[in-house]
Amino acid sequence: MPNLSQVGPYIVHGKLLNKPIYFAQRELTKEPVVLKKNNPTICEDDHPNPNLTSKRVLEHEKRIMGMLDHPNICQYLGYIGDQSAPDSPDFLILPDKGRYTLRDIPPMQQIPAVGAAIAQVSAAMVHAHERGIVHRDLKPDNLVIGREGVTIIDWGGAYRRSFSNDWGATMGILTPGTPGYMGPEQVVNPSQPGARTRPEFANDTFGLSATAYFLFTGKEAFLRCRDDIYFALPRSRDGLRHYGGFGEVIIAGLEPNPKKRPTMKQLTFEAERHFGREPRFENLEGRVNPVHPVETDTTELLEQTAIMLDRKFE
Ligand SMILES: Nc1ncnc2c1ncn2[C@@H]1O[C@H](COP(=O)(O)OP(=O)(O)OP(=O)(O)O)[C@@H](O)[C@H]1O
Ligand SMILES: [Mg+2]
User: Fold this and answer.
1) Best of 22, 139, 141 for a ligand 1 pocket test (most atoms within 8 Å of beta carbon)
2) Is the pLDDT of residue 307 over 50?
């Protein structure tokens, strides 16, 4: 149940299950937005001040988005919060980019469309890398699809290579990154908690290559033994060999040694050469599963959500 009905000028009508993500509309203009609340559960268990830290991470996400300007990178519309009141929630206001992510596409469907989606994402990541920003958590769930194409979201764990104190922004939170989508160099060594290698652009090559692997084969690129150990058992790469130079670049993108991975520019070049730039999302939208259950308060609110969704996908 969304325990919120209004945040500033935004009327809340739904919530993602198990996540502090709210769907809302601006009262006057009806503009659809997503409200992302600071999330204290991203902090390690023994963290002394999870609320304040999660507010700082949300602000960091806003700051990173403010440094980027690309059609496939999420922008923010505003921020509602008060750093001087540590217990009150903060909200990042985002444009609603669609109800589905690349995780929701049925395996092996619409390969040209997902190939072109990878081309869009890698071109957007070239933009971010040129500005010194490493995302660190590229994965299908952080790529929203809608009529305008793919949007890269979730920049809270991003790292600016020219700011040595960016460590501060993410210290004390659980490892930024997701098992199965992080290169071995990104995984925190359990015997040395807190010791991390400096984030590098090749982290994102790995994340996007693992994403492409999942989209093209319908399987995760690595079998996981435990949540934090995933690279022991890579799956067969044979399925990717049909895609020529693009397949090769994705296989190389999953190299354990970051120095052996291609750059985002190389990945973009091969993806565009093989698939072009324009995903045909009209087809895709009809085929994806609505996997994000939206919690709502009343039947009336449910109906409103349905009406909104219909409009979005009409
Ligand atoms: N601008 C947006 N438009 C549409 N959906 C969004 C948007 N931002 C977030 N979402 C939805 O909310 C989900 C969670 O958002 P996000 O990844 O930013 O938060 P998170 O809590 O950091 O996620 P996680 O820790 O699981 O990676 C996304 O997977 C997506 O389904
Ligand atoms: Mg996410």
Assistant:
1) 141
2) no
- 18: which residues sit within 8 A by CB, 6+ positions away? none
Joined tokens for residue 21: 């993500």
Q: Which residue has the higher pLDDT, 93 or 189?
A: 93
Q: What is the CATH number of domain 6-95?
A: 3.30.200.20
Q: Higher model confidence: residue 179 or residue 248?
A: 248
Please give the structure tokens belonging to residue 209: 């290559």
For ligand 1, the distance from its centroid to the CA atom of residue 36, given in whole angstroms, is 8
Other C-beta atoms closer than 10 Å to the C-beta of 99 total 23
The answer to whether the CB of 74 is under 6 A from ligand 1 is yes
pLDDT tens string 46-91: 888 899 989 999 999 999 999 999 999 999 999 999 878 888 999 9
Per CATH, is 100-312 categorized as 1.10.510.10?
yes
pLDDT at 289 over 60: no
Residue 224 sits at φ, ψ, to 5 deg, of -100, 130
Given a contact cutoff of 8 angstroms between Cβ atoms, the answer to whether 279 and 114 are in contact is yes
Atom of ligand 1 nearest to the CA of 74: 1
Closest CA relative to residue 94, chosen from 23, 40, 38: 23
Residue extents of the structural domains in the chain? 6-95, 100-312
Neighbours of 197 (CB within 10 A): 14
DSSP 3-state of 24: strand
Cα separation of 51 and 259, whole Å?
37
Q: Write down the pTM of the prediction.
A: 0.87
Which ligand 1 atom is at minimum distance from the Cα of 42? 25
